[in-house]
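Listing S7. Sequence submitted for prediction.
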Amino acid sequence: MAMLDWTTYRQQLTARLGEIAKLSPDTIKGYVALSGAGQKHDLLGPKTRELISVAVAVTIRCDGCITVHTEAAARHGASREEIAEALGVATAVNAGAALVYSARALDAYEQVTVTRQVL
């Protein structure tokens, strides 16, 4: 059973972004230019770019990015297993980031407690 109707969501998102394009065309033009800049040399190929995009989409928690890039990854031949591997990388990076920020939290705690002792 699907958690969301991703196709309908993607269509609704596309329609809403079309409204934004009418209201702020330069914003969309800038986004399209930025998105296309990394594809100029095509060293990674579209499937790999989309797999990276899916992993990043999960990391930044963007449902719109998830639906758009998952569909594109599938269209460029990514298998379910390849998507799962990309998601595993996203999970590992997020866990690593949590560890790094855990170290920062301990550092902040130590600084706060040392500062209190000095006062």
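Caption to Listing S7: primary sequence and predicted structure tokens for the chain studied. The CA atoms of residues 46 and 83 lie 14 Å apart. The mean pLDDT is 93.
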